[in-house]
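User: quick one, sequence for these tokens?
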């Protein structure tokens, strides 16, 4: 038994990760330089034959550097096998200027085929060879945290699909610190008719660095983001649904 546990194959380890995932949906305030620009949702659910991950954002985003921000919604849905292997993924960007869709699917376990539609449909599909398994940026911390100890200093190199560059990267994720966070988990209307904090809870989190885009994220024991920062002044913070969406600035 000790020998089996110490020499588990990668497939066995991923299957165990899948069994330990708890379906949950979290909501976030998205800020740029301290000002809220939108809201986000991160959900993982289970079906009879698959795991489904969905990331959603609505807010003001830049179409290109140097241009004015534009109201944008983005949805990224990923389907995995019950063994926590990516099967297919789709990203839909909806906005007035250059809406588009990215679709990706794993072929022969070592190739990710990526195709564009919409405003970028003239771009031919690309085949991205990679070292399996490959994850999305949201799922890599889940596999990392559920697949090993939470000891500070632990590292793991993973294959991660970066949709902004349409490449598969090989970042080394590393746990740098551990801390306790207080997060808003429910809201209620106050006397002004605004949604205000009704209750807070404490969450233990670990700081992971090494992800694509200069991301520095504090994640819980299941790899779900508690708060995170990007190098371009963007940050996300877990909160209650009403505070993330009902109080968000609208145009």
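Assistant:
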């Amino acid at each position: 038994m000790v020998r089996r546990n110490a020499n588990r194959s990668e497939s066995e380890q991923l299957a165990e990760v899948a069994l330990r995932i708890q379906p949950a949906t979290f909501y976030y305030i998205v800020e740029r330089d301290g000002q809220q620009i939108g809201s986000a949702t991160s959900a993982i659910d289970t079906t009879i034959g698959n795991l489904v991950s969905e990331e959603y954002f609505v807010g003001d985003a830049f179409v290109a550097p140097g241009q004015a921000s534009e109201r944008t919604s983005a949805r990224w849905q990923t389907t995995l096998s019950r063994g926590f292997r990516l099967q297919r993924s789709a990203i839909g960007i909806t906005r007035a200027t250059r809406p588009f869709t990215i679709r990706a699917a794993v072929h022969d376990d070592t190739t990710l085929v990526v195709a564009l539609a919409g405003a970028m449909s003239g771009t031919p599909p690309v085949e991205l060879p990679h070292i399996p398994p490959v994850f999305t940026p949201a799922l890599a911390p889940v596999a990392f945290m559920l697949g090993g100890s939470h000891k500070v200093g632990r590292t793991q190199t993973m294959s991660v699909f970066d949709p902004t560059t349409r490449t598969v990267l090989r970042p080394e994720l590393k746990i740098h610190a551990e801390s306790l966070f207080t997060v808003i988990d429910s809201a209620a209307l106050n006397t002004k008719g605004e949604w205000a904090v009704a209750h807070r809870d404490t969450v233990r989190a670990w700081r992971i660095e090494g992800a694509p885009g200069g991301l520095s994220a504090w994640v819980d024991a299941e790899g779900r983001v508690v708060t995170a920062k990007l190098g371009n002044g963007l940050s996300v913070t877990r909160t209650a649904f009403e505070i993330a969406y009902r109080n968000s600035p609208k145009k």
